[in-house]
Amino acid sequence: MNSYRVWALPGLPEVRPGDDLAKLIAATGPGLVDGDLVLVTSKIVSKAEGRILAAADRESAIDAETVRVVARRGALRIVENRQGLVMAAAGVDASNTPEGTVLLLPEDPDASARAIRTGLRDTLGVEVGVLLTDTFGRPWRNGLTDVAIGAAGVRVLDDLRGGEDAHGNPLSATVVATADELAAAADLVKGKAAGLPVAVIRGLGHLVEADEGPGSGAPEPGTPRTETSEAAAPGTEASGTTASGTAASGTGAERAAETGAEGAAGPAGTEAAAPGPSGARALVRSARDDMFRLGTSEAVREAVTGRRTVREFTAEEVDPGAVRRAVAAAVTAPAPHHTTPWRFVLLESAASRTRLLDAMREAWIADLRRDGKSEESVARRVRRGEVLRRAPYLVVPCLVMDGSHHYGDARRDAAEREMFVVAAGAGVQNFLIALAGERLGSAWVSSTMFCREVVREVLRLPDDWDPMGAVAVGHPASDPPPRPAREAADFLEVR
């Protein structure tokens, strides 16, 4: 199959809450046949399902539909909404709805698509595929296009992995977003302001699936992708319905802004992750797997607040390059007198880690015994320090006082050292944040500061290098628990 037809269905009445969309579509498109694809603008689904909200303040409606903010610029927000979609204004639409009201997206777009498909089967006796569409921006691209947000009986992803290209090269990563391509084709004839919310595509029946259950959203690996050469056959109802620049949901500025942060669907041109859920959910990349899940300012804030102490690690090896990139970030911290008071000792071999930790343990045991601790207490305390042994990689940050000033009196000399210690801490904080950005966990443990001479001797460090603890580094064995909330007001005094 190398061609298809696409046309809009004229004559659909204004949709109101409680309307049976399947019957309305059947009345305007009685000639539907098995294998047709029916593409429905999500706005009329929202109206039929009563997703109309009285809201004098659209912003509060957006707040209620937002799960997380991806990016913000002024009043404009790109967010992940309750349906898992990343889009402008959570999909809350104040256009084509009575003043003082807004339209929310269908609560479950896949379920809505299934209902329409079942209704068309019952009314017309045809087996069609149904897609619900909405308008999105795209990363790194100007302009808007329609994508699928709900699907029933449609092969939404065309998985080419396991096949070969025209030259016999194996295809190992490419998964085509077929449902989004269909949505964009349909939008060419539906338009944005022509009052044509439903389109039909004929000639691609191989994309229609009989099963709507789990797995229907993704084809088997190696399924060939059908090329299309004709967007609309002559004589179809496409005339006069070309897409305009009007956004289908929210404002044009909001939709255009999505082009920089459409995180859930993934950046344009990248390969899709392995399909999992059925329906259009299979098109949505999880935030965890998205390389562009946040805007710049949001990413900076989350990098700081999202850094957590990790004490349990997997056995997976740590990429030394990732640690070196984190060190490069560490040495951008502020420091006194334009100095560079940071040094980082990387313990990449198991032998070097064991040698250091054994020597530190002996020094710690000696200190505890001098403190009069019982052998049981000593053993218990030593066990608590095993976090460094469980890590597959250790880093010892050190402070050097090169470039510091000497004043000759204890008060100012102590202040000078404190400035350098603060700078060392800032460098370690940068280091920990950068490790988190590399998806590495870390735990900053103070132990080397209590036996600096031992550390310098074992690691053969210069006498003027002061160890400032040790950092355990590795891949987290599990997600850390939620951080207890802290109110900034509890830490403020205003004068």
UniProtKB/TrEMBL annotation:
Residues 209-280, 472-495 are annotated as: Disordered. Binds 2 divalent metal cations per subunit. The ions could be magnesium and/or manganese. Residues 12-203 form the Coenzyme F420:L-glutamate ligase-like domain. Coenzyme F420-(gamma-Glu)n binds at residue 367. FMN binds at residues 335, 446, 483. It comes from the Bacteria. A divalent metal cation 2 binds at residue 135. Its EC number is 6.3.2.31, 6.3.2.34, 1.3.8.17. It catalyses: oxidized coenzyme F420-1 + GTP + L-glutamate = oxidized coenzyme F420-2 + GDP + phosphate + H(+); oxidized coenzyme F420-0 + FMN + H(+) = dehydro coenzyme F420-0 + FMNH2; oxidized coenzyme F420-0 + GTP + L-glutamate = oxidized coenzyme F420-1 + GDP + phosphate + H(+). Keywords: GTP-binding, Ligase, Magnesium, Manganese, Metal-binding, Multifunctional enzyme, Nucleotide-binding, Oxidoreductase, Potassium. Pathway: Cofactor biosynthesis; coenzyme F420 biosynthesis. The keyword Nucleotide-binding applies. Its cofactor is Mg(2+); Mn(2+); K(+). A divalent metal cation 1 binds at residues 93, 134. GO terms for biological process: F420-0 metabolic process. Residues 484-495 have a biased composition (Basic and acidic residues). GO terms for molecular function: coenzyme F420-0:L-glutamate ligase activity; coenzyme F420-1:gamma-L-glutamate ligase activity; GTP binding; metal ion binding; oxidoreductase activity, acting on the CH-CH group of donors, with a flavin as acceptor. Residues 296-495 are annotated as: Dehydro-coenzyme F420-0 reductase. Residues 305-475 form the Nitroreductase domain. Residues 1-295 are annotated as: Coenzyme F420:L-glutamate ligase. Residues 229-280 have a biased composition (Low complexity). GTP binds at residues 12-15, 42, 47, 96. It holds the Pfam family Nitroreductase. Bifunctional enzyme that catalyzes the GTP-dependent successive addition of two or more gamma-linked L-glutamates to the L-lactyl phosphodiester of 7,8-didemethyl-8-hydroxy-5-deazariboflavin (F420-0) to form polyglutamated F420 derivatives, and the FMNH2-dependent reduction of dehydro-F420-0 to form F420-0. In the N-terminal section; belongs to the CofE family. This is Bifunctional F420 biosynthesis protein FbiB. The gene is fbiB.
